[in-house]
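Pipeline run #58 for the internal structure catalog. This entry was flagged by the ingest filter as a single-chain record with no existing model, so it goes straight to prediction. Upstream metadata was stripped on purpose; only the residue string is passed forward. Reviewer on rotation: M.T. Logging verbosity set to normal.
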Amino acid sequence: MSITRRNARRSVRILGVASASAAVVLGLSSTASACVIGDFKAEAKCDGAKGVIVVTDNDAIGTPAHITVFRKDTSGVETKVGEKEVKGSAAGTSVTIPEDWKPSATYRVHIKAAGNILDEDTPDLTTPSTACKTESSTPTPPASPKPSPSTSAPAESASPTPSDSASHSAPASAAPSNAPSPAAGSSNLAETGASSNTPLIAGIAGALVVVGGGAVWFGMRRRGARGNS
């Protein structure tokens, strides 16, 4: 059986159409499995005492993608937090965007793959209800103060007692004297007896007696002279 030129052209056309169809199918299948929004996962985690947003790309083909994170407030206004490039893998490739998030905050994560294969948002990310904190930030109970040594006891012991003052004042009143101490049983005689002034007093008394006797004698003599005349 001979192959005519016409049959050869027809066979070439059939192979071309089949090849093109296979290429289109493979292209669509590779595009569909290369990068989809389900390959990306966003999480709010803690890095010590600070919060971070971690986005993981599980794209097995490894299509480069651009990640942008926005913070939403209660009024709907968005604030750009950060952005990073990622190239996924079957095991998952993660990128970390620093963000000290607040409890129960809402974030929007936008994914844009190379060649506009993907340009979508992941489901909104809501942070945990508890903020990040470390063990050192937990307050420790204050240590109980140690009792300080009391200084009142020495002060009290240093103050003189009545018996001590009496014992200290006794020698002062019993100081030695040059005067002879009276004998036992003669304390009254010593108080009324002669002293060092006794001779002076006796001399004055004797002089007064002599003067008084002279005056009496002189008076009697004058009286007798008047009687004789």
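catalog note: Confidence is low (pLDDT under 50) at residues 28-32, 170-175, 184-191.
catalog note: The chain is about 40% helix and 25% strand.
status: ready for reviewer M.T.
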